[in-house]
Amino acid sequence: MAKGSRRGGRVRDKWRDKQWIIVNAPPAFEQVPLNYIPISDMNNAKGRVIENTLYDVLKQDPTQHQTKIFVQIDKINSGIASTIFKGHEYAKEFLRSLVRRGSSMINYVDEYTTADGYVFRVSATAFSQRRINSSKQHEIRRIMDNVLKERIPQLSLNEFIKEVTMGNMGTSLMDISKNIAMIRHVGIRKTKLISSPVQKEGDLSIPPTEGIADDDGEFSATEGIADDDGEFSATEGIADDDGEFSATEEVEEGIGETADTPATTNTTTTTNNKAKTENI
């Protein structure tokens, strides 16, 4: 028996409170409908990452099931959600099928920026027919870096997405890498969006120092008490009549440890003199 029925209350059906929205693909894939998902709150749904396959987006070739596409909900308007491209990766089953005994796997990972300011972390991978030595592996990684460094800054966001997901970038890497060793597969295994121009513009600058702002709204790098001119002193102490701070900590005459020290010395001297007189 459910808790609600024991207490005599009514069990609330949370599915009735949910709303269903249509999730469209990013502009690089012509914003075709991808998913029909339930959400409980419009604000909480923004930023949700949804996984699909490339075949779900294009519906062209069954081999496109081997590539996963990640999209992130950006805006929701009238039950339709627009998304941005978050990244892609090889399916685990496809990656396992590429690994064979007696061959080498060469990986290379680095961050690159597109022509319109989007920063992606790109992971390229290559599989050889036979084992190759470390010098050839290093040469293949150097070629990967040179090709990606040359091509990605010339591509816009939509062009970059098509290049890495459709396999065009891997074909370019294959044409050059096969001159070094016998390569059976080269491709962009994974991409991940690191930052975008929209995120950079939305960042708020934080002042580097902490303190109390003056009349001009500027912060002071030192801590203390401002004088009549609104300036802070680098030393700590008690201000005099002119509003200046002393580098040493002092008190007025007759009060504190400085005034008490002579009195203590005189008392000790008088006691010693009395003791000498009694002994005589």
Describe this structure in words.
By secondary structure, the protein is an alpha+beta fold. It has 3 domains: 18-90, no CATH class; 99-203, Tetrahydropterin Synthase, Chain A, CATH 3.30.479; 208-234, no CATH class. The protein has 9 helices and 8 strands. The chain has helices at 3-6, 42-45, 54-58, 92-98, 134-151, 157-166, 168-177, 197-202, 257-279; strands at residues 19-24, 33-39, 49-53, 67-77, 80-90, 105-113, 119-128, 183-195. Strands 1, 2, 3, 4, 5, 6, 7 and 8 form an 8-stranded mixed sheet that branches. Strand 6 (105-113) and strand 7 form a beta hairpin. Residues 204-213, 217-226, 232-239, 245-271 and 273-280 have low confidence and may be disordered.
Could you spell the SSE succession in H and E letters? HEEHEHEEHEEHHHEHH
How much is the average pLDDT?
78
CATH superfamily of the largest domain: Band 7 domain
Which radius of gyration do the C-alpha atoms yield? Answer: 36 Å
Number of extended strands? 8
What global shape is seen?
elongated
Distance between the termini: 105 Å
Largest sheet: 8 strands, mixed
- Our estimate of the beta-strand percent is 25-35%
Low-confidence spans: pLDDT under 50, at least 5 residues? 204-213, 217-226, 232-239, 245-271, 273-280
| Helical run tally | 9
Structural class: alpha+beta
Helical content class = 25-40%
By CATH, the topology of the largest domain is Tetrahydropterin Synthase, Chain A
For the record, the count of structural domains works out to: 3
In CATH's first tier, which class of the largest domain applies? Alpha Beta
CATH architecture of the largest domain: 2-Layer Sandwich
